[in-house]
C-alpha cells in the first residue's frame, strides 16, 4: 500500500485527494521505487486543471527520486538498493511508492541528494535542452528569460552564467529580482512595473536579443516578439498565464523574419541516449556546484494542494518538493 495523491476530476487544488492506494509488484521491464522526494512543477497544474488532458481517475506529478525496492522481470540495469531519479511519464509521482519503467530511471550520483534530485530533474533537463539543443547558446549571446526567479528560471540564470551568456530575466517582484541577480542574471526587469520590450532595447543598445525564452505564454507573447533582434528565435515553452492565442505569421515577418518554436522536454529526451547525455550534463553542473538547486518550498505529500496554491499564486521562488514520508 502507498499514500498517493489522486484526482477523479479536473479543477482547482481541491480536486487533489490524499488516499491509500494499492501498488502491485513491478511488471516486466519495471522497477518499484520508494520515493524520498517528489518534484512539484507548473506542468502539474496544467494536468490538474485539464489544460493538458489525461485519463481520469489518475494521479499527478512527473518527477521524483528514491531507492529501488523491487525489480521486475528482464530488468538488468538496476538492482534493489540503487538510488535513482527521473522526470517523465507516466503521471503519478505524487506517491510514496510506485512502479516505473526502468528505461525512465537514472542512477543518481552519490553526491546528489534525493531532495536536490527531485527538485532538479524536470527543470534542469529543461534548461539543458533550451540552452544546448533548441538553440545552441554560446558565450557572448544575450537572451531574455521570463519568470527568472522560478524553478526553471533560477537554474537558467546559473547555467547561462556557466556558458558566458548574458541573461536578462523578468520577474514579478523586487524580492524575485534580487534572487535572479544573485543567481547570475545580468539584468532584471519587473514585468509588472516596466515595459519589457522598451527595457530590453535599452539594455541591448537598441538591437534586441537573439533568443527569448517565454514560459509565461498569453501575457508576454507579443512583448516577447518585440524584444527580438531580426532573425531572432522565440522559444515559447509554457503557459503559466494561459496558452498563447492564435496569431498571424505575418507578425513574424513584420518584426524581422523571426522564428518561433513551442518545444516540450519529452521530445528531447525520448531516446535513452539523449536522456543520459542531458542527465550527465545536469549532474555535472550540479555536482561541481556551478548550478545550485534552490529548494525554497518543502511540503508534506499530504499538503500537495497547498503547494499548488502557492505555485499558482506566484508566491514561490526556485523549486518546490513534496516529502512523502514526513
Ligand atoms: P515557476 O517556478 O517558474 O512558477 C511559475 C512562475 O511564472 C511564477 O512564479 C511567476 O513568477 C510566473 N508567472 C507569470 N505569470 C503568471 C501567472 N499568471 N500565474 C502564475 N505564474 C505566473 O514554475 P516551473 O519552474 O515549474 O515552470 C516554469 C514554466 O516552464 C512553466 O510555464 C512550465 O510549464 C514551463 N516548463 C515547460 C517545459 C517544457 O519542456 N515545455 C518543461 C518544464 C517547465 P513571477 O512572480 O516572477 O511572475
Provide structural commentary.
Helix content is 30%, strand content 27%. With 326 residues, the protein is α/β, with parallel strands linked by helices. The protein folds into 2 domains: 2-121 and 266-323, Medium-chain alcohol dehydrogenases, catalytic domain (Quinone Oxidoreductase, Chain A, domain 1, Alpha-Beta Complex), CATH 3.90.180.10; 139-262, 3-Layer(aba) Sandwich (Rossmann fold), CATH 3.40.50.720. The strands form 3 sheets. Strands 3, 5, 6, 7, 8, 15 and 16 form a 7-stranded mixed sheet that branches. The longest helix has 21 residues, at 114-134.
- How far do the termini sit from each other? 17 Å
Largest sheet: 7 strands, mixed
Name of the level-1 CATH class of the largest domain: Alpha Beta
Rg from C-alpha positions?
Answer: 20 Å
Keywords, separated by commas or semicolons:
6-stranded parallel sheet, 7-stranded mixed sheet, alpha/beta, Quinone Oxidoreductase, Chain A, domain 1, 16 strands, binds NADPH dihydro-nicotinamide-adenine-dinucleotide phosphate, 326 residues, Rossmann fold, 2 domains
Structure summarized in a few sentences:
This is NADPH2:quinone reductase. This protein is of the alpha/beta class and 326 residues long.
How are the secondary structure elements laid out?
Elements: E1 2-7, E2 17-21, E3 30-40, H1 42-49, E4 58-59, E5 63-71, E6 83-87, E7 97-101, E8 106-107, H2 114-134, E9 142-145, H3 151-163, E10 166-171, H4 174-182, E11 187-190, H5 196-203, E12 209-214, H6 221-226, E13 228-236, H7 250-254, E14 259-261, H8 265-268, H9 272-287, E15 295-300, H10 304-312, E16 319-323
Parallel strand pairs: 9-10, 9-12, 10-11, 12-13, 13-14, 15-16
Antiparallel strand pairs: 1-2, 1-4, 3-5, 3-7, 3-16, 5-6, 6-8
Helix pairs in contact: 2-3, 2-9
NADPH dihydro-nicotinamide-adenine-dinucleotide phosphate binds at residues 41-43, 122-123, 126, 147, 149-153, 171-172, 176, 215-216, 219, 237-241, 263-265, 311-312, 314, 316.
